[in-house]
Write a structure and sequence with these properties.
Layout lengths: L22 H6 L15 E6 L8 H15 L3 E7 L5 E2 L2 E6 L2 E2 L7 E2 L6 H8 L3 E5 L3 H13 L3 E4 L17 H13 L3 E4 L2 H9 L5 E3 L16 H4 L10 E5 L8 H10 L4 E5 L5 H7 L4 E5 L3 H10 L2 E4 L8 H8 L4 E4 L2 H6 L6 E4 L2 H12 L2 H15 L4 H23 L9
Parallel strand pairs: 1-2, 1-7, 2-4, 7-8, 8-9, 9-10, 11-12, 11-14, 12-13, 14-15, 15-16
Antiparallel strand pairs: 3-4, 5-6
Helix pairs in contact: 3-4, 8-13, 11-14
């Protein structure tokens, strides 16, 4: 199952699309995907995701933002999503693909086959296929895209090999890394969320890796939300600092570190927001000063961020750490692990504190819990750091890149994607 790729210029990283000296892209500036003058518009994008509503995680949230951007700016999208759920998202139709549920997470469906996908590709006539954290369904979609002749962009959002030791299959990590590289190298391009992650992927043998980071809505995530006072009631009763963690409740998030920190700091109040397979276990083992809030969305989530004093996130396996960026936008200092995307986002001693182990994580939370002035200084610096990362700017650059890749494919090989299903 290979996605066709051609062209040496795809090997350049996308650290900044504005500085990318791509001759194909230069020829696309000032034109739409249909060749009309003006900014890029009218693109047709197929989005393939392993995780989608009603499930909620970082992949779903990033797909939501992409679909909203496409809708607002006059582009067309068709979604293929594994498992049951809504058949529409905004103006986009969502094709639900059945599969096997519960192999990894109780609510996650693996869909290795979608027999109707080929006909839908031909009918929709896409310019680009966007693979969000591709696994089973993404591999199948990539094969269909190759057959039809459509470029594919694989977005690396889940570091599956890093989960191996948490799920008792540490010996399989090398095999998983080789399989990932083989698949991603068969696609037109792979996007990493940070330059650091891109370097890591290249060291594993990934080719044609570019960077497209995640955005944040700093108008929504802000410290002065009017609902913050009411949201503070979600924490256990007490006068100490309010510590927040927003996370999927799963093994790879290492939430036992958070629970132990709460035990060590009984004067602080902790709130854990999220859902996942460890929900029941965590509720039974959480100390009295840690409350599980379940999943929160929309204003409830934004208000809860705004009511917190410190954001504490113990995961070491994040490719990016979107919840960390949301916390920073809300002017929260962050305590995280010196690993993955969190270490990229958090400036140690500037926007938060990074830990090398569980004991240091607890000490860092204790320091910020007892120092309101330091919390304010770091929180203000954190918000300033993420303000430029707007979803609109990031998606505009991504679509500019997609238009260049689509034009490159058409110019070199003739456009085979726009074929009639009849």
């Amino acid at each position: 199952m290979r996605c066709e790729h051609r062209g040496s210029d795809l090997s350049r990283p996308l650290a900044s699309l504005r500085q990318l000296e791509d001759p194909v892209k230069e020829s696309r500036r000032g034109t739409s995907s249909t060749g009309m003058p003006g900014s890029i518009h009218g693109m047709r994008v197929i989005v393939v995701t392993e995780s989608f509503h009603p499930r909620m995680d970082g992949v779903v949230r990033s797909v939501d933002m992409l679909l909203d951007h496409l809708d607002r700016h006059g582009h067309s999208a068709l979604v293929f999503a594994a498992g049951p759920g809504p058949a529409e998202h905004g103006s986009a139709q969502v094709e639900r693909v059945p599969g096997i549920t519960g192999l990894v997470y109780p609510d996650l469906t693996l869909s290795p086959v979608a027999p109707f996908m080929h006909a839908r590709f031909l009918r929709f006539q896409p310019d680009m296929v966007h693979l969000a954290s591709p696994a089973a369904l993404g591999v199948y979609a990539a094969a269909v895209a190759r057959f039809v002749g459509i470029p594919t962009a694989a977005h690396y959002q889940t570091d599956i090999p890093s989960y191996a030791h948490r799920y008792g299959i540490a010996a399989a990590r090398g095999l998983l890394e080789r399989a990932e590289a083989l698949f991603h190298n068969s696609c037109t391009v792979t996007y990493a969320p940070t330059e650091e992650m891109a370097l890591e992927l290249r060291s594993r043998g990934f080719e044609r890796v570019r960077v497209s980071r995640r955005g944040v809505d700093a108008e929504f995530f802000r410290h002065d939300r009017p609902g913050a006072a009411a949201a503070s009631a979600r924490w256990p009763a007490g006068e100490g600092a309010r510590i927040l963690c927003v996370s999927r409740l799963a093994r790879e998030k290492e939430l036992e570190v958070l629970l132990e920190t709460a035990r060590q700091l009984p004067s602080a109040q902790f709130l854990l927001v999220g859902q996942g397979p460890l929900d029941d276990q965590l509720r039974h083992t959480a100390p009295p000063n840690l409350q599980l809030a379940g999943p929160l969305h929309g204003d409830d989530l934004g208000d809860t961020y705004a009511a917190a004093d410190v954001f504490a996130f113990p995961s070491r396996t994040e490719t990016f750490g979107q919840v960390v960026q949301e916390a920073m936008a809300t002017s929260l200092p962050v305590v995280g692990m010196r690993a993955g995307g969190v270490a990229t986002l958090v400036g140690h001693h500037r926007t938060g504190l990074l830990a090398d182990d569980a004991e240091q994580f607890t000490r860092h939370v204790a320091v910020l819990s007892g120092d309101p002035a330091l919390r304010t200084t770091m929180g203000e610096a954190g918000r300033a750091a993420v303000l430029p990362a707007t979803w609109t700017a990031i998606h505009d650059r991504l679509l500019e890149d997609y238009a260049g890749l689509a034009a490159d494919r058409k110019g070199r090989h003739g456009w085979t994607g726009h074929r009639s299903a009849s």
